[in-house]
Specification:
It is a single chain. The protein is α/β, with parallel strands linked by helices. Helix content is 31%, strand content 32%. The chain has helices spanning 12-23, 57-63, 83-89, 131-145, 162-170, 182-194, 212-217, 229-234, 236-242, 259-268; strands at residues 4-11, 32-39, 44-51, 71-77, 94-96, 99-102, 115-118, 152-156, 174-179, 201-205, 220-226, 243-255, 272-279, 282-288. The protein has a seven-stranded mixed sheet with strand order 10-9-8-11-12-14-13, sandwiched between helices. It has a four-stranded antiparallel sheet with strand order 2-3-1-4, covered by helices on one side. Helix 4 runs parallel beside helix 5. The longest helix has 15 residues, at 131-145. It is globular and about 60 Å long.
Length: 294
Amino acid sequence: MTIWKLEALGDRRRLDAAYQRLNLIDPPVALSLSLFVVDETAGTARLEALFEDAPDPNAFLGEAGLSQGDADVMLGPLPEQDWIAMSLEGLPPVSAGRFTVHGRHDLDKIPQGQTPILIEAGQAFGTGHHGTTRGCLMAFDEMLTAGDSFERILDLGCGAGTLAIAAAETTDAVVVASDIDPVAVEVTLENAELNNLKDRIEAVTAEGFDAPEIAARAPYDLIFANILAGPLTELARHVAQALKPGGRVILSGLLVQQEDQVREAYEHAGLAQEASESIDDWATLVMRKPAQGA
């Protein structure tokens, strides 16, 4: 099978905005999307996208919110090779609190004292390089630093399984991971096995909370919900019901300008904001369910 690569070179801020916009499109516009800083001083970056069929560059730029003058575009077929592995090799390890997310090619580059999470993303989203996953990891790290303990954790919309693996690595909790995409569930189980955690993570295909495996483990001390603002808003009541009193949810996948909308939905469901942070225009919210008698 021939894989096509489109490269767009231009202003870092514009390409970062384009990258964020493209990642919100469902179904995905490309097999793989990557963003690399070319020159920090000059403020240039390179956006790479891989396709099964040759794309229309102008149509791609339009979907990215770019015009022809915003970037220099190159398009061509890749040589026959493992294109997923090649794409991952361009991604350096990413640290978020105590966690370092890395590919197999960077096993020797993990800082001492960090908790490594080996992720081979394949066709699933969530390598740790995006601000949403990093934000969730950092919020979780702050909870661990504060001495919080957990018995039951749900990773809702698990993608590549990064958050579920982080939870299984650092707690004794039962960890459930779910995703609407069966490919993501497969990738999560593969990554759990790579991290020697397959027996600690139960991964299921489910839309929202529609799976008996999720209901059987409820209520949860902690829920990760790194999806999109629309589904997050729709699921607010279900998330609140699935949390035990005093339990928390880490919400991400929302842009900073969508934060108020999502917060209000969870406040309406009875939760209170505990923390809010942003990375690269993406917000991460921590909401808590009141303790009994509070």
